[in-house]
Specification:
The chain folds into 2 domains: about 1-165, Rossmann fold, CATH 3.40.50; about 170-284, N-(1-d-carboxylethyl)-l-norvaline Dehydrogenase, domain 2, CATH 1.10.1040. The chain is built from 13 helices and 8 strands. The chain has helices at about 10-25, 35-45, 75-85, 105-110, 125-130, 145-155, 170-195, 200-220, 225, 230-235, 235-245, 250-265, 275-284, and strands at about 1-5, 25-30, 50, 65, 90-95, 115-120, 135-140, 160-165. An 8-stranded mixed β-sheet has the order 3-2-1-4-5-6-7-8, with helices on both faces. The termini are far apart.
Length: about 280
């Protein structure tokens, strides 16, 4: 049975450690934290492991998960390397969405295999995360041998591992942010406009929600280009002019223009050259 030590008693670390324990293929050795009470709660949730507040107390493990905030990963790796408790040939990994395995360089210099494993999942509630994790896509990058071993770990947790291209972590995370965070921002933008049009609050959600769900389903099923509809895709310059006149807000207008230019590019050769130029003149 492989062994796992978790550094950090937060929600992600607790969730992954609990899943590893439940898999029956991994033994949680140590759970590391700074404060005794959160550390005790973490160990109780995981259902295994020994509480540790001193890196010198750690036992040699096959895997070490650095489940700490992104800004602390490099310093945590430095501390672990200085403690000399992670043996050469073991795997140390973090779960940052944007950070790469290079954050663990001090450990790699000591012969440790380093990588990152990012589950595309929300760990807001660890109990719910453990119950719902099955099928979660897990992005891997880093040392080849480390990634191979982490593929097995991700599968044991119930995840679906896949590899990122070298140097692709920031673009990967930006893509997730666009798909998630910007979708929320677009919802707020659309609600501001429908409110300005006099749409009652109780109708705004069904009005926009139904259209957004249908559009997203079409984009995923057909591909963005084939799913694209609307005035820009039709080359309706007059409607775009009326939209811009109705916005009445510099920030909304800037967002509309930026997204409009992306829509023109997506429409591609569906637009005659003359129409494309007229649209772009409005959108710059």
């Amino acid at each position: 049975m492989r062994t796992l030590t978790v550094m950090g008693a937060g929600r992600l670390g607790c969730s992954l450690a609990r899943l590893a324990h439940l898999s029956g293929h991994y033994q949680v050795l140590d759970v590391v934290g700074r404060r005794p009470e959160p550390l005790r709660r973490a160990r109780e949730f995981i259902g295994a492991g020994r509480e540790a507040t001193d890196l010198g107390q750690l036992r040699a493990a096959d895997f070490y998960l650095l489940s700490v905030p992104d800004g602390e990963i490099a310093s945590c790796a430095n501390d672990l390397a200085a403690a000399g408790v992670a043996p050469a040939g073991c795997v140390v990994f973090h779960a940052s969405g944007v950070g790469e395995a290079a954050l663990l360089a001090p450990l790699a210099e000591r012969g440790v295999l380093t990588a990152s494993l990012h589950p595309a999942f929300s760990f807001a509630d660890p109990a719910r995360a453990v119950a719902d994790f099955a099928g979660t896509l897990c992005a891997l990058e880093g040392d080849e041998d480390a990634c191979t071993r982490l593929e097995a770990l991700a599968l044991a947790l119930g995840g679906r591992p896949f590899r990122l291209a070298p140097g692709g972590k920031a673009a990967y995370h930006a893509g997730l942010s666009v798909a998630s965070n910007f979708l929320v921002a677009l919802t707020a933008m659309a609600q501001r406009l429908t409110a300005r049009a006099g749409v009652p609050d109780e109708l705004a959600q069904p009005l926009l929600g139904g259209l957004m769900r249908q559009t997203l389903e079409n984009a995923l099923a057909l591909g963005p280009r084939d799913a694209l509809t609307g005035p820009i895709a039709r080359g309706d310059v007059g409607t775009v002019e009326r939209h811009l006149a109705a916005l009445g807000d510099a920030e909304l207008a800037a967002a509309y223009r930026a997204l409009g230019r992306q829509t023109v590019a997506l429409a591609g050769d569906r637009l005659p050259d003359a129409v494309r130029l007229r649209l772009l003149a409005l959108l710059y």
